[in-house]
Every structure is written in structure tokens, then in C-alpha cells.
Amino acid sequence: MKPLNIGMVGYGFMGRTHSNGYAQANHFFPCEYKPVLKAVCARNKEKAQAFADNWGYESVETDWREMLKRDDIDAIDVCTPNNLHKEISIAAAEAGKMVLCEKPLALNQADGEEMCQAVEKAGVKNMVWYNYRRVPAVTLAKQLIDEGRLGRIFHYRANFLQDWTINADVPQGGAATWRLDAEAAGSGVTGDLLAHCIDTALWLNGSIKDVSAVTETFVKERMHSETGKKEPVKIDDACSFFCHFDNGSLGLFESTRYARGHKALYTFEINGENASIRWDLHDLHRLEYFDHSDDSIVRGWRSVHISDGEQPYMKNWWVPGLNIGYEHTFIHQVADFLKSLETGEQMHPSFRDALETQKVCDAVLDSAAQRAWKDV
Amino acid sequence: MKPLNIGMVGYGFMGRTHSNGYAQANHFFPCEYKPVLKAVCARNKEKAQAFADNWGYESVETDWREMLKRDDIDAIDVCTPNNLHKEISIAAAEAGKMVLCEKPLALNQADGEEMCQAVEKAGVKNMVWYNYRRVPAVTLAKQLIDEGRLGRIFHYRANFLQDWTINADVPQGGAATWRLDAEAAGSGVTGDLLAHCIDTALWLNGSIKDVSAVTETFVKERMHSETGKKEPVKIDDACSFFCHFDNGSLGLFESTRYARGHKALYTFEINGENASIRWDLHDLHRLEYFDHSDDSIVRGWRSVHISDGEQPYMKNWWVPGLNIGYEHTFIHQVADFLKSLETGEQMHPSFRDALETQKVCDAVLDSAAQRAWKDV
Amino acid sequence: MKPLNIGMVGYGFMGRTHSNGYAQANHFFPCEYKPVLKAVCARNKEKAQAFADNWGYESVETDWREMLKRDDIDAIDVCTPNNLHKEISIAAAEAGKMVLCEKPLALNQADGEEMCQAVEKAGVKNMVWYNYRRVPAVTLAKQLIDEGRLGRIFHYRANFLQDWTINADVPQGGAATWRLDAEAAGSGVTGDLLAHCIDTALWLNGSIKDVSAVTETFVKERMHSETGKKEPVKIDDACSFFCHFDNGSLGLFESTRYARGHKALYTFEINGENASIRWDLHDLHRLEYFDHSDDSIVRGWRSVHISDGEQPYMKNWWVPGLNIGYEHTFIHQVADFLKSLETGEQMHPSFRDALETQKVCDAVLDSAAQRAWKDV
Amino acid sequence: MKPLNIGMVGYGFMGRTHSNGYAQANHFFPCEYKPVLKAVCARNKEKAQAFADNWGYESVETDWREMLKRDDIDAIDVCTPNNLHKEISIAAAEAGKMVLCEKPLALNQADGEEMCQAVEKAGVKNMVWYNYRRVPAVTLAKQLIDEGRLGRIFHYRANFLQDWTINADVPQGGAATWRLDAEAAGSGVTGDLLAHCIDTALWLNGSIKDVSAVTETFVKERMHSETGKKEPVKIDDACSFFCHFDNGSLGLFESTRYARGHKALYTFEINGENASIRWDLHDLHRLEYFDHSDDSIVRGWRSVHISDGEQPYMKNWWVPGLNIGYEHTFIHQVADFLKSLETGEQMHPSFRDALETQKVCDAVLDSAAQRAWKDV
What we know:
The structure is a homotetramer. Chain A is α/β, with parallel strands linked by helices. Chain A is built from 10 helices and 17 strands. Chain A has 2 domains: 2-131, Rossmann fold; 132-375, Dihydrodipicolinate Reductase, domain 2. Chain A has helices at residues 13-28, 45-55, 64-69, 85-94, 109-122, 136-146, 182-185, 189-205, 328-343, 351-370, and strands at 2-9, 33-41, 59-61, 75-78, 98-101, 126-128, 153-161, 208-216, 221-223, 230-232, 238-245, 250-256, 265-272, 275-280, 286-291, 301-305, 374-375. Chains A, B, C, D: It holds the Pfam family GFO_IDH_MocA.
């Protein structure tokens, strides 16, 4: 068993999902490599230590630059707010570390491009945690598309609907609500939620040519956790866009945090000439599939329960009928990364892959600002 | 166009569904015969007249015996409470009229047998209004089974769940609640609801050999609308039974009026070696279908929306995607009856067919009373 | 009972739905007025006669101008392809007839404005058959919104997805496929399908300020039924748009005939501060409702089966749990129109109401052509 | 942190679920105690070693009696086929070890009674792995019932449907298919599947008075993995029963391995006077809830997505909208057991609790054999 020594920066929600991925991957996916949790880094030493104790990190750092100097660390996992991704990732690459960066890659395309160049110049392994590619149902969708079952694609539609910011008393800024602060987050739902939808779409349906978008900020001012005062809200609360894909299909995307009744409703649907697919994060263990070649009197949407050994990742889990959940996407991503170290194959999505999503996000925000179509 | 002159006895809920069937059948199903609404009969002349005016009955009678004497009437439609089915049907047969009787056929098997002998001796056309055979999804289920798609059948389960009698203040007896009065209804859910489930089951899955049942009466006394006093409730509020079918499959049936949240949830599911089917009255325009021969990675229950021209009855209605509802089952039954007059074929379910359901109901009630298995 | 003498122009799919509405309305909804089917008009006399025989029209005309001259006709029902709506409606108004026109009102806003002026000048009763307002679940949605249950509205989204034109061998033009011929239809999915979505949206959520749209024509050439030759397809196969409503909410609309697996999936969802609603034509007897004021541990989307007497229109139908279907929307519209004659209240949607939808359709098509936002 | 030293007997499917529970409990649920994986025991040393390496067991034993002698082990986890539960559990209790036994407790009531007496006499902590009590949705159901939200209960129905033994070529006996061998398993679906349904029912709805059952063995002979010959199948392939609960409600239970289309469809539904609940293992993160006190026009079954911090166990997992799965039931059971060590409270279900399920199973099998009602 070869160790993969991990140094993590940040210990928030994503710190937990990644740590769990490191802890569990080898229990279910036999790999030559095995993550070793060497250090977690955060400014608050006490909280970092509690996190380290819980997950078994061997040490704690309070300055990520110090962590980069350590020889006993192979890979840096960047779990910070978005505005720190660039600096840490580039420094990590320059220090010769593998870089595993949370999504979105960067605050904008220019920053992302620098980050790509840094990891490519350094020749270090890199990936971005767009975890939804590794929901078994989503991976199966990719397989069905690659097998040509859908035929010519006409439509791709996706949305990501939440409702947690409807209350105007939710503040912006700070540990729990930095996603509402434009400085820390870069954008609102576009970078947080649509980025997931776009990453999946690019993977399943290919490149996007141009976009036309609209954004809205429903609550114009919120208390800022740091200033303690009401400040203008500069992120997008909602964003919709349509687009043309290179393959000739039309895309339609929507995201909001003001859709009462939806906690995290990420759905997509793809309509092809011969078959259609849809999926929904709230019931992530099912893939809906419509096959036009079925005998017409019994043709209908099939609700496929993804728990059989023949379906992606599932032979490593339990038995047919028994579900896995959200956290498993990160376990799969760790397992696939470990496997890529073994085989030497390029892990996806790489920084370069994630930059494509960044380009679309930038075009979307530009389009909304200028009320005009924008090429990607 | 040949007239089929109808004389109806009763004008309650079923009087409306049948009248609508007569009014609509020829609008959608081209037939040589066409119902003509000659007379409706009820003791209350004023109410009968209002009903006649609404539906276009040409005349009103207050004594069904008088109606049987009329030469201008071809068929007697028996829409009365259950305890009058026998007397009217036999007299109608003896008067040479066709007899179209509401379900259940009779209060018990012995009465039903007399009724069968009467219509057979008289050689008159006859049928019983087990309308659910003619939900397009149910008719399609019959077709799929007859085509052999399911293979060997292992399980048949059905239930009919309602919640309208939970309130102990609902009275028994009288026009609206005669179904709670054992004298008028014969039995409770067994004759009212399970009879539907049994009729469908016999049609789809063949004969039943033996049964074991349990019944319950949750509310022991209710005000009687006629006496104005609390009287013991003698009907079954709930009834469950299992059974062996002749084809070796196991049956499981349940009915109740105490299933909070279900208005009229009639469902059945059939599990065969190769395929399974399920259906639900609350969404009657869908048939759920599972085909084990589907490619395993995309195998799942299909939700088949029954609205295409290739599906039973549907080419006579609207266009794909647009639903029909409950009342259409009666329209289909009228249309099929009219067609049977044209072709001379036996209409189903005949009195004789319906007697089979009566036998099972009797065995179920006997089994529950004696806490023992009973042969049918 | 007062007669309302009907003269219908056209006898296609909508001719059937309207005729059924006239035949059935009084069976279920007690009204002072009752439709009398005086005449149906079509160029093909034989087919018109067959239609008249089936539905009980007393006479047949082959020139609608002749029909307008008849004194025994009170109301003209315009069921022709879209390009004839204007001429017939204006002439009918000038002849002093009530005008009941199929949707969309006109080929464009200018024509629609002329039609409005004609009926208003003549002072004749008028309505447009946007039938989906009278699905009981949709009417209930209107009631819930008017009661203020949703609070401030953030999002309105709707789509209308079909798949019947994917096959490139479907022709354009002619009786069955005039909807693919720009000359007869005016537009493609915008006027055919989105017009329904827009009418409902304006009714439920108020006026639309501006729109940004995209259209696509996937199959560029189709055989024309009249010329027998391949001709360019000039209609929109798919159309999406977003918009701002006057109430500050964002709208998102999509329609296509290339969504494999959907026959007629008209859905809408409205997200308010306090509650959300969604509805789906494929299961039109259900309304999904989410109420944020529910106790949080048991809060969820409710699937409300619309069949109780307290829900709109349903006390006139069957009993709880038993569904009605598509055709009933037209029966309700006829019944409401008859009632409006009695009360003198304005029937909705009037020509003027429908003109608002036409304005949005025009803005949508302009926006798509010019790749720019358009005010309505 | 106090260690809880675990010695596990067996390493099959349940060995994996338990090991994962031990590995994960403290990552998510802060506890004073923490499991330490001291030893795994199995006859095949090589396989046991591989299992130990994967999960981090410190040592391997090949004779469970040796393991009982070790002072460094606090608790014995019995994961063997059913026919070994008794001997190992009693010996473990006599050795002063806590005993954590897989379900069903025993082959029959008499054995179970001996086991209860052994742990009670020894005064050792004990529990049985009826894991479905700790699906958050099921735990929430318990809470809702205990709060009195359902009122008087009328009906409890449950089923557990699978389809994996339809193929007559599936053998009996051996590591993968011992559940088809009566000697190893005791019974078929009754002990394997119905036992789960009964445990949940007793927990949620109280004691069962009497039962009436039917069983069926559809495939009469199967190859035996040990003899290599076709042998009669002595287990029940399917079993249904009804029962009376002490609270006056009727129960209806069904289980089979011949329900084509269902992998592991464990469902239950409870109908109370005021509210109803239903749940389904295939979508285990949802609880369906119907509350009759809802305003009637918007009353319907709520689909409650169990992922909020206020719902049982969920504040320790991710964020609203993100699912956990099957394996988490074991993590919860471990966490609750660790907590019970801290608080001294009795862990449920204890051996004594599980004996109640055993009594019902015995009565069910007796009833089926004798075709008669049996008291529990």
C-alpha cells in the first residue's frame, strides 16, 4: 500500500466531505494508494485541532504557506472560500504538490487560466471537486450517451433550486454565509450552483458556443457579518440562461435560492432523437430513462433504481435495492483519483476541464450585465 | 341507426354514470345501435322528473313493475341498492327485457344463481356494471397478460382503500349512506369494494380456489337514518383475504373505509416470471410496467401514460398526452354493449361472470366468520 | 331554459372538444341557458354532414358568410386554423353574433387589436378558448394565489413539451399538419403551445414587462402537403424565453416539439415567499403544493388529488377520488359562459384578455429574431 | 475517549455493514466511547485476514471460542448464519462479553428465550441489529406516533418484496445462498424479511395478539451447494399474514422473493384516525405523511425529504437536500449503542425486544402449517 499524504486547507462543509472520502475510499475500492491525513490547516488552531482529532489528521497548521514547505505532504486539498483558490493552488503547484481544488476553480476565467498554467508548468496532478459527475446515476447517463443511445441531441435543460436565503435576515459574509458575500464568493448562484450544472453539461453534452442570461438579486441589502452593518448584496440570487451547444442542441439553465420548497433540487434532462434521460439530486439513486424503441403500447419513462452491480460504482457497495447517498460522490472521486495515480491516466475534471466551466460562468455573468448574447 | 330503448330503475350516483354513458357512447364510438332514454323509475316522482329532465329521459315511472310492462322499452338498467337487484332483474328477464344490473350482482350466491337462471332461461342479453374492466390501462393489462408477456404468475395483490366512514357521526341507512346498512347493502366493503377487485382479478388472473379472510367493524354503532336511533353496525368496515388461484399464484386482497388519506385507492399489482404490472385508480391513466427482458442497466418500472391511439379505446378520444377519466369506463361499457348487439357476441361481464365474484365474496365472508379457510 | 344557438366554423379536433362541451355542460352544471347546435360550417359538405350527424347539429353550411346571415344563430364558434380567426371573428361581430374563438386569438398583435375593436364596437359577447384556466387544479391555483397564500412571488416557470415532430417525414400543411405551415399557423410552438403557458401565467401572475427569447428550427425542410414538394420550414420548432413580470418575479418559459418522451407535458411552477405550487397536464387532476408554514419536521410537497366537492368544479362531477380529464376543461368553459349570460358578468378570457397573450408572443418572436430583449 | 473493543464473528455482507458502522460512528456522532476493531473470526483464515486488512481489525481468529477467551475484547458481534446465533451468543454472555447479534435473534422462540436468559443472567449489554429502526424517516415515524399525531390506529400494513430467487437455477446452501437452506436459515422470507417488518411494527404499533398466515414455496427443488444435488427446498418463498394488534388495529404483512421488479421493496403504511404515514426502503430518505387537519382544499400526501437538521440523526450529516443511504442505519445503531454505554440507558432492540419478533415469526409459520389462526 502506497501512502498519498494529504494536507488540507480549510475544514468547513467541504472539509468534512473530502475527509470522509479519504477515510472511506479504500474500504470499498481496492487501490494501491491510500490517503494518509497528514495535516489540516486553518487560522483558528483550536477548531482545526478539533477537526483533526475527529478525522484523524496527524497534525495542524495555521499558515498554509508553512504546510506547503513540508516534505511529508504529497497533495494539497483546497477547501477554502473561492477567493483563496488561486493563490493557494498556484503556490502549491510551485511547491510541487498535487492540487485538489474545490469548485468553482476560480473567481473568473483569467484567474483560472493562471491556475491551469501553474499546474501544467509544474507538471503536478490536479483535479477539481465537481463531485456530481460521480453520482452513479450521472455516470450511467454519461455511459448511455457515449454508447449513442440518445441519438442526435435536441435539448439539454438543468436547474439547481434552493430556498435557504429567502429570509431577508440571513446575513452575508462570515463562516456560514460567505456565499452571499461577493468578495469571498465571486458570484452568487452562478458560481455556487450553476457551475455544477455547467460542469455536468459540458461532460455529458460537449461545448457551449454562446449564452444569453438574466440575473436577479431579490434582497438588495443584508447585514454583513464582518461589518455588522447592512451592506448592498452584490451577488446574483437567481440566474437563468439559454445557450447553443456545439452539437446543435439548445440548453436551458436556471438557478436560484428563492424557490420555496426546494432544498437542493439539482435536476437535468436531455432529450435525444431516440431516447431521453433525466435525473434529480433529491432522489439521486434513480435515473429516469425513456427509450423510444420500446414497444409503443408499453412505452414510458422508466424509473431505474441504481443499485445493481452492473451499474457504475455499485458492485463495490451493498446489494440491489440498497441506496448510497450524497457523500459517496466524494468517495468515488477519491477512489478514481487514487486509481489514476496507479494507471497514470488523466483524472477528470482537471483544472483545464474546470476552466471550461469558468468560461461559461463568465459569459453568463457578462451576458446578464449587458443584456446581450455572449460567445463563450 | 337502431334504437336501444332504455328503462332505468334508480337515479342515484350510478344512475348518473350510466345516463352519461348512454348520452356519450355514440359521440365517440360509431355504433349501429344508439340508446334512447325512454323512462326512469323511482318512488319519488319529483326527483325522478328532475333527473329525467336533466338527462333527457322521455318519461317517468314510479313503479318499476309498470315499466316492465311497456313495449317501448328494450333494456332495464338496475341502479337500485343491492337488495333490490334480484327481484327486479328476474322480473325484467321474465318480461323479456335485456338486463343491465349494477354490481354486485346479488346479496349472495344463491340469489345470484337464481338471477343467472332467470336471464338464461329467458334468453335475454345481460351484463353487470363492473366498470373498471374498461379503464384503458386495465384493458391493456388484460391484453399484455393474454399475450403472455408476464409468464408464470406468482402474485396478485389488490386493495381498495377509502376513508369516508372514519367519522363515527356518519349515519347508516337512507339514500346517501345505505351502503352502511347491512339490510340494503348485504355486506360492507366486501360487496362494495372488494367485489370490484375480485371481478378484475378473475378476469385478469383466472379462478380462485380457496380463501382465508378477516373482517373488522371499527365503529360498532351508528345512527340509523330511518329509525333515528343508534343501531348496531352489521357490515364489515374492513376486509382482507388471501387466496390461491387455479394458476398457482397467491392472491392478497384488502379493503377498508378507514385508511386515512385515501379517497378511492383501488390498486392492483401482478408479478409474473418475466414482467409485472401495477395500476392505481387515483392515477387511472397510467399503467406501471416492469419488463425483466429490458437491458439490465436501464431496467425499471415504466410509467406508461395511456393516451395513444394504439392503446385500448384511446383512438376514439383525443390526442396523445390528454387524459380521460372515471366516467369513460361507463361510456366504454355502453359502447361495447352496443357493439355486442351488432356482432351477437357475448358481452362481458355477464350475470354468469359476475356470479363468480359473488361466490368469492360469500367464501370470504364465511371464512372471516368462521376464522377458517373456505373453498370457493 | 333559454336556447343559445350555436354556429360552428370548422370541425377538427377543437370542433370535437367544443361540441362535447355544448353537449355536456347542462348535464352537470344547472344553467338557465342551454346550447342548441344549429349549424356547422365547412367547405367539405360530406365531412361536415358526418360531423353534424355525430354531434346533432341541425344543419350544415359550406360558406361561413352564409351562416352569419342566419337569424337562428346567436354565437359563432371559430374553430378554424389560425389564419382565418380574424376575418371570421370580425365579420361575426359585425353581424351581431357572439364570438367564441379558438386560441391563439390572431396571427399577431395588430390583427388581434382589430378583432378586439370589432367585438367591442359591436358590443357582442366574446371569449377565447384558453381552456387550461378551467382545469380544476389550475382554477384552484388561481384561488390560492388570490387568497395570498404564496406571498411575494419570486419565480414563475412553465413549459410545454411534445415530441410528435421529431420524425423528419412528418409533412407540413394540410388538415392534420397545418400547425407546421407558417402560413396557416403564424408561428410554431410559440402560438400553439407557449400561448397556453402565457395565458395561464398572465392570469395567475399578472402582466409581463419584457422578454428575451431564443427559437430554433431543428428540421429545416419538410414536404408540404399541398405542393407535394419539400419546402423550407418557417415555424419555430422550439422556443424559450425569460421575462420580468410587473410584480418583480422572474419568468422562464420553454416549449418544443422535440422533447422525446413527452406527449403534451404542460407544467408550471410558482415559487412564492410562503408557498409554492406546481401542476402538470399529464396528471392534471393533481396539484402539488408546498406550504412553508407547515411544521418543519413534516413539511413537504403535498400531492393534492383534486376530486373533492370543495375544490373548483368538482361538486358537479362524481365523488372524491374519481378523476375527470381533459375534455372537461371545455365543458367548464361552456358552463361558465352560459352562467355569464345569466349574470351579465364579463366572461374570461375575453378577446381583450387574449390580446395580452398575443402581445407577449409577438415580443417573444421579435426578441428571438433580433437576439435582444424586447418590451411587451 | 474510551475504547469499546470489538470481536466480530463472520465477515459476510453484515460483517461489512457493521464494520463500516464502527469505522464511521465517531466521525459524525461525538461519543465518549469509540469502537476498536480488535479481532475478526472466521474458519477461513486467509479470507478473514483480507477482511481484517481492509477494515483495520488488529487480529484474526479462526475459532470463536478462542476469541471469547481474550481479555482485550469487550463485545462480540455475531454476524454468522442464523443457526449459529444461539451457541455463540450464549457462550459470549457466559464469558461476560456484551453481545451484538444479527437478526433474526434465533431459529425459533425457544432458542431465543434461552439467549435472553443467558444475557440477562450474565448482566451483559446486548442488542440485535434490526437496523431499519434507525432510518431517519422511520425514527421520525416513531416520533410522530409517540406525539399522538395519528390518533387511533386502524391499519398497519407492510411488505418486503424481492425478486432474486425467481430463477430456478439459483442454488441453496453455501456462503452466498445459505438463506435458501432451511438448516442454516431456519425459515425463508419469514425470518429474513418479515422479521424486519415485524420488528418495526412492534416498535411503532405495539404488540400483536394473533396471526393467520399462508406460505408458499414456488420452486420445489434446488441444487444444494454442499451436496451438489437437487434437494427439496424447505424454506418459505413467500409468506403473507394478517393479525390483530393489541391496540385494536388490523395488520397485513406480505413478503416474497418472487415479486418481479422489486429488489428490496420494504414498505409500511399506518392509517390513523387523524393522520397516516408510509415509507419505502427504495426511497428511504422520504416519509409520506397525510394530515387530515390540513385545510381540505390543499390536503394531500406530503412527500417529506428527510434531510433537515431537525429530523432524526440529520443534524450530524450534511445539509438540507442531501441524502444519506442504507449503510447509515448501522452507523446510527453503533452511535446509539455507544451513547447507551455512556448514559446507562437500555439500548433497543435488546435480545428481549427481538424475542417478541421471534414469537410472531413462530406463530406465523405455525399458522401457515396448520391453516389456522394462532395466538402469539
